[in-house]
Request: fold
Amino acid sequence: MFLWKVFVAALVQQRDQMGAKMADLEQHWAETRGLTTWILILWFIFSIGIFFFANSLNSFTFFGWPFGFYMAAQGSLMIFVILIVVLNFKQEKIDEKFGVAEDE
Amino acid sequence: MEQEKKTFIEMLPKIYGMYTGGFIAFIILMAILEQMGLGADTIGILFVVFTVLVYAGIGWLSRTMQVEAYYVAGRQVPALFNGMATAADWMSGASFVAMAGGIYFGGHGYLAFVVGWTGGYVLVASLMAPYLRKFGCYTVPDFIGTRYGGNLARLLGVIVLVVASFTYVTAQINATGTIASRALQIPFEVGVWFGLFGILLCSMLGGMRAVTWTQVAQYIVLIIAYLIPVFWMSNKQGFGLIPQFVYGDAVQRVTELEQLHQVGVLKPTESFAGLKALTVPFVAAGGGLAAWKFVTLAFCMMAGTASLPHILMRYFTTPSVKSARRSVAWSLFFIFLLYFTAPALATFTKLQILDPNLATGIIGKSIAEVNAMEWIQKWSAVKFLAISDSNGDGILQINEFFMRGDIVVLATPEIAGLPYVISGLVAAGGMAAAMSTADGLLLAIANALSHDLYYKIIDPTAETAKRLIVARILLVVLGAAGAFVASFQLTSILGAVAWAFDFAMSGLFFPLVLGVWWKRANRQGAVAGMLLGFLSGTWYLYMVRWGGMEPWLGIDHLRFGIIGCFVNLVVMIVVSLATEEPDEATQKMVDEVRIPKGETVLAASH
Reply:
């Protein structure tokens, strides 16, 4: 409980000092939210969306694979890895822009 | 001390580089001994015993009596190594032994697991890992309890965690028992306890620190054991050096062969316990209900991935928020290496069994000829496959060949005529996969019970030494309970694994997500949501599996998490909005979680 009170007091103090910075933090969160939304839209397309049409996608081939099968066995998996790398890269940029990245 | 720690972290690439080299030297030594006439059984025993001893040694060296080291490995695990440890934590005996076989039998439909078990990491990276790391919790219920406040929320978090993880861990202990009993040629019941002994050696003395460094070692063994046979086989049969990128034509050839052998047309007329005949065409996806079942299963596995505490807690061990995020990318990359190989392995095995032009092909040949094959005799002796001339024409049809899915990983090296040393390697890999997952799960349960239930709720004044001793006793008791349940072999491995995901998503997915992303979420909402979400999911599982209820919209017992997490979401929003908003301190805490800079929300030692 004691720790909790210290923590709350520290936060209140911080708020008073950083009134001007609040707008910045809101902007930081707005951009973070925007980036996350985009990543989740792409995630939804490649993990759920395209597999509603897997049967139709199988009618053409991609380097020999029926395309629907390829996406489930390999294509979507690679896209997931890329999505996370892109997310990290952009999020690090956003954090640096608003000065909230961690000290190295 | 600080200096010493730093050197250890800096030395990690060198240490694990030497370890990998040592393991490869061991494989070569075994291959030489095999040429000199060492028996196949002895090689299998040496592989399993040697690797388990190495893990136990790492566990012993990582012993600790510090809270921070025991719960979160001192928060100093670099992103890349945490990625390997997470991959080992993640890939269970089921991924290693059963996945390729599942794809062999289930074709496109089974790939929903492959998509789900990788796509979930996008949710972990975007919604969970960095924010939970900033929070600075030791366990997942630690976040729930602090963010929403109150012991009830914390307790519900603990209950969901225990149910989900315990369901999962029995399957893993079962798998270690199966592999140990086969490799060491001891009864299954003894094998289970041998497996448990190895698991506890890795986790008991050093908690998260020991589990982290053994899991890295286990990842190296399991990925080598999975990839080497596939590369070797592929080169032997002319598919090229990296077969994963070029097996498209093999998939098409399999489709032709399946039409030739009338897969899906000929149905088996006999049945053998635990064995299946191939009836599902490989590539066909199906529309309508089949597509719906694919996406619902994939969704359950993804939301479950992002809620399973033994995975989330791995990201508490990194030095920073940034490295937690990067570590998710590494995790998925290391998991990807195995998951994009499994469909290739399933394709090669199919080709070998179905293609009458290959020496290994058996379908369409005379029963007498097939029965004379060495691998057929060996695996039918242990009841892993069965051949029966149902129509009495003396020729083996597709519906007359029955096998267990596990064979795809376990026997393919033999089918392709690789030396026995490869089979020993595969046994060691399967053991590493099952042990590492069991370790992570047992530790997640024991930590939640010792930190959240015992320390935070029952005795907040307990001293450090006492807390850590309680944690260890719980680990042993839980492990023994898991082994006891596993020795009854109640569910098939896959059923239990899918249920763990559904339990976790029913109870934890939205309380975790909304805790970070919706400031208005409050205690009342979280408590009501977790309770009703978890209960409704469990009720649905019971009704569909045992109560004789018709599943709604094809949502069967593998997908009950959809019901649970939907109820959880609706209840949580409605109750939160109907009650007062969280106090200012809680809202500030959420603000704090959303930026990487600054101290963790919870004090370093709490």
In short: The mean pLDDT of chain B is 86. Residues 157 and 436 of chain B are 24 Å apart (CA to CA). Chain B touches chain A through 63 residues (CB under 8 Å). The longest helix of chain B spans residues 420-458.
